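Try this one yourself first.
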């Protein structure tokens, strides 16, 4: 009798193992086959023409990912696809950058880039039009003083992602960080209704920083207009004088082409945020660590 029970136990265990191996569900089954097969050889991108997209096209060539496709879209479409995949523990590869709220909400990792296609750490610069210092010295001084940390930017982005309007999220951050903001404003003369136009791209990071700077300028008495455009028109508008400033220039890689194209037609006030990064991003549950692994 004891042998019969033992035999039935072993048979039952084998049947269970076979069921799992034949597609019994779970995260592991969703990640069978090569990484390329799992994601249908697609990398979910953002806006066509963005520096991150150009770098990804270069990565496709440098790493000889012949069967791979970069899907154009937008920042919002990319994060929506990531959220859906992450919720279902499905594999996905997206173009990503830091700071971004997705790193605070999800457990993600960058794929290693041994060929340095995406470059090293990036910086976000403040760029102003020629002549701004003479026309609006108070705005120029504030823009030159503006500097914050990735954690600051991410806190505004998370508030926005959770449903707050950008202006409201920015006001809350300024209220909770008066010491930092007062350093930006220290010794600057106020004005009465002078108009300033800030241009920005529709990335959550740049929506956050531009709204924060806009409210700081309003504290000085400026009437601020926000102009949301694509990256190319943003730089062109700055060079032509249609926009007064941007706090959204990712350098030296992401916006390198625009910087070179319009060089001499703007003034670079230097980084307002250090410690940024761009590259290919995957959920931490995926068994892949390097871009080189995409060919396996």
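Now uncover the answer:
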């Amino acid at each position: 009798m004891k042998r019969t029970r033992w035999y039935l136990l072993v048979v039952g265990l084998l049947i269970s193992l076979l069921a799992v191996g034949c597609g019994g569900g779970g995260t592991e089954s969703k990640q069978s086959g090569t990484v390329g097969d799992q994601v249908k050889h697609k990398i979910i991108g953002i806006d066509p023409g963005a520096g991150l997209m150009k770098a990804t096209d270069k990565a496709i060539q440098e790493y000889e990912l012949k069967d791979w496709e970069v899907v154009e879209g937008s920042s919002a479409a990319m994060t929506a696809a990531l959220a859906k995949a992450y919720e279902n523990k499905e594999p996905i590869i997206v173009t990503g950058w830091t700071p971004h709220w997705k790193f605070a909400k999800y457990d993600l990792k960058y794929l290693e880039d041994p060929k340095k296609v995406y470059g090293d750490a990036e910086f976000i610069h403040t760029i102003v039009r020629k002549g701004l210092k003479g026309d609006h010295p108070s705005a120029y001084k504030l823009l030159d003083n503006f500097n914050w940390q990735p954690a600051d930017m991410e806190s505004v982005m998370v508030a926005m992602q959770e449903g707050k309007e950008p202006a409201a999220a920015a006001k809350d951050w300024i209220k909770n960080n008066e010491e930092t903001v007062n350093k930006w404003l220290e010794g600057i003369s106020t004005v009465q209704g002078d108009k300033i136009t800030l241009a920005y791209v529709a990335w959550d990071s740049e929506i956050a920083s531009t709204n924060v700077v806009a409210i700081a300028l309003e504290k000085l008495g400026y009437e601020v207009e926000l102009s949301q455009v694509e990256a190319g028109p943003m730089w062109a508008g700055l060079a032509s004088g249609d926009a007064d400033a941007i706090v959204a220039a990712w350098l030296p890689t992401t916006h390198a082409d625009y910087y070179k194209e319009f060089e001499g037609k703007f003034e670079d006030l230097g980084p307002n945020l250090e410690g940024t990064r761009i590259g290919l991003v995957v959920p931490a549950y995926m068994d892949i660590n390097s871009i080189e692994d995409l060919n396996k």
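Discussion: The two ends are 51 Å apart (CA to CA). Confidence is low (pLDDT under 50) at residues 1-29.
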